[in-house]
Every structure is written in C-alpha cells, then in structure tokens.
TrEMBL record:
Name the UniProt record assigns to this protein: Uncharacterized protein
An annotated Gene Ontology molecular function: fatty-acyl-CoA binding
UniProt keyword Phosphoprotein present: no
Keywords in alphabetical order: ANK repeat, Lipid-binding
Pfam family name, one: Ank_2
Recorded superkingdom: Eukaryota
Amino acid sequence: MDAIHTFAREGELDNLLKCIESGVSVHLQDNKGRTPMHWAVDHGHLKIDEALLSRNADVNAKV
C-alpha cells in the first residue's frame, strides 16, 4: 500500500494533499486494485472524498 492509500484510509487530508501536490496520481491502485477513493469511501472520510473528487478521481473505478 502506498502512502496516498494510507492517508485516504486514515483520513489524513493534509498528508494526502501533499502526496497529490508532489505528483502522486489520485488514480493510483494498490496491489488489489483499490484507489484512494475506495479507501476513503470505505472508511467514511467525506473530506478526503471531496478532495479526491475535486481532483478528478474516478468514482466508477472497479476493484
């Protein structure tokens, strides 16, 4: 699991934004095909969801 997935799972908005600003893709998949959006939705982190959506995260990504 990459840092962006951990930050999405844990609801760490500031760190997630730093990852994105440094060039990490919001579409990055972990070893099971999950994106940061999957992790944020699964753990109820609305602010993370909003941040990812505003950066064009794919809401239709399949695992």
